[in-house]
Amino acid sequence: MKIANHSVVEMHYTLKDAEGTVIDSSSGGEPLKYLQGVGNIIPGLEREMLDKSAGDKFTAVIQPEEAYGPQNPELIQTLPRSAFGGVEELKVGMAFRAQSTEGQPIEVEIIDIDGDNVTINGNHPLAGVELHFEIEVVAVREATPEEIDHGHVH
Question: Which of 4, 62, 99, 129 is the one with CA 20 to 30 A from 41?
Fold first, then answer.
């Protein structure tokens, strides 16, 4: 069976950046299971998965525009330390939930601390990154009506 919309796909993957640094991998663990065609994985990889079958092995390079988007400079802001009331010790790398200007919840990470100025980044950690995938399709099956209705694999 070839992968099409509303297929349940099981795959092993290794994700690297353009320099070859491994970012994530399912190697040594369970394969990733997802429902094709409903946005469960990044758009560029979903497109590359179409028409593949169990046993297929391939590589795919996904540009930021078809993954987590480019870096948005508006999502990098410097705030006063007082904006983090209730947190005793701030450190670079700490993550917080915040609200976007549209009122949507977003994750932000502290990327710099300079005295009383704290710089945060609300971009996804992989925004602006060219993604290099090594894929092995393990299994493909038709989704059940319940999986299609719920938009994810059961």
Answer: 99
Q: Where are the beta strands (DSSP E) in the chain?
A: 7-16, 22-25, 32-35, 57-62, 76-80, 95-99, 105-114, 117-121, 131-142
Residues present in the chain in total:
154
Which residues of the chain carry a pLDDT beneath 70?
none
Supply 106's token pair: 């977003």
Pairing of strands 95-99, 105-114: antiparallel
What pLDDT is attached to residue 87?
Answer: 87
* Cβ count near 110 (within 10 Å): 19
Of 2, 8, 1, nearest to 146 (Cα)?
A: 8
Return d(Cα 14, Cα 133) in angstroms, integer: 6
**Contact status, residue 32 vs residue 12, Cβ threshold 8 Å:** yes
Query: Which residue, chain included where needed, has tokens 């996904």?
Result: 62
| 153 DSSP β-pair partners | none
Q: Hey, what are 4's tokens?
A: 């099409």
Check residue 115 and give left, alpha or beta (phi > 0: left; psi -120 to 50: alpha): left
Question: Number of C-alpha atoms within 13 angstroms, CB side, residue 119?
Answer: 8
CA 109 to chain centre: 16
